[in-house]
UniProtKB/TrEMBL annotation:
It comes from Oppiella nova. Signal peptide: none annotated. Pfam families: Alpha_L_fucos (PF01120), Fucosidase_C (PF16757). It is an enzyme of class 3 (hydrolase). This is alpha-L-fucosidase.
Length: 292
């Protein structure tokens, strides 16, 4: 496991930051005396493999001196040969570093393009629909359901992305029961279906060409189709999977191989077993496909 660290350029209520903001970013007292030295100390003392930069969005990269910092990071810092960074280095209207500059891109919060990207990217999202922080007043409906989390996971990975999932802790660092439950549910799903996620790569298709909400990955010679909705008819038509290429299909978590037939377009129609999808196999249903 690699060690990464988060650092925010800004501090909303720091007097030096507020003074620079009032001066329309023509002064850099906060950057020179607080933010930049702190960031260099973080790199020098802890030597992380990844720096997740944030808090840039109110001001341009010239204010943060991002170019100069990155020059130091990649040429003179103790992690110059190993460090990986994201893309949050400065922002003004019509001129942002997001989705443009970085070892990998976060673009914006909850970025989920649902199409294959040419650059490595990450979906940074929250379990709480409305906040990154702990909220005492939050109600159950404010939190993503397990199904919504797994759906976001398979969408992200099928398009070559990494999922960064946030659970907002309390002031003393505790993870409250609703966050704990969601994380355990995610772990349970991954324990069963992890072969479709860990070490996988995007396949020829990301989303199925006929049936919505079917997302593909490939791993170790197998193709995986993650079906978000259990088919009410008991069958699902996979337009992205040609019948002539299929040797066998299994539903991960079920015992026997599934029956499949060819439809008139040459696609593959898969018959699902007689199971209760809410208790036997939950949330998103993964087909393991062996090809000829």
């Amino acid at each position: 496991m690699r060690f990464g660290t988060y650092h925010s350029w800004m501090e909303w209520l720091n007097p030096l930051y507020l003074e620079d903001k009032a001066n329309n970013w023509t002064t850099r007292n906060f950057v020179k005396t607080k933010s930049r030295p702190e960031r260099e100390e973080l790199i020098t003392k802890y030597k992380p493999d990844l720096l997740w930069s944030d808090g840039e969005y109110e001001s341009p990269e010239e204010y943060w001196e991002s170019t100069d910092f990155l020059s130091w990071l990649y040429n003179d810092s103790p992690v110059k040969d190993t460090i990986v960074v994201n893309d949050r280095w400065g922002n003004v209207p019509n001129r942002t570093t997001n989705c443009k500059h970085g070892g990998y891109w976060n673009c914006w919060d909850k970025y989920n393009p649902k199409v294959l990207q040419t650059h490595k990217w990450e979906n940074a999202m929250t379990i709480d629909r409305n906040a990154w922080t702990f909220r005492r007043e939050a109600v159950l409906e404010d939190f993503l359901s397990p199904k919504e989390i797994m759906e976001t996971l398979v969408q992200t990975v099928s398009c070559g992305g990494n999922l960064l999932i946030n659970a907002g802790p309390t002031h003393d660092g505790r993870i409250t029961p609703i966050f704990e439950e969601r994380l355990k549910q995610m772990g349970l799903w991954l324990k069963r279906n992890g072969e479709a996620i860990y070490g996988s790569k995007p396949w020829t298709h990301q989303n199925d060409t006929i049936t919505p909400d079917v997302w593909y990955t490939q791993n170790d010679g197998k193709v995986y189709a993650s079906v978000v909705h259990w088919p009410e008819s008991g069958r699902v038509l996979l337009g992205g999977l040609k019948y002539s290429t299929v040797a066998s299909i299994q539903l991960i978590g079920a015992k026997d191989s599934l029956q499949f037939t060819e439809d008139k377009s040459g696609s593959t129609e898969v018959t699902f077993p007689a199971l209760n999808p809410d208790t036997d196999i939950q949330w998103v249903y993964v087909l393991r496909i062996s090809t000829k």
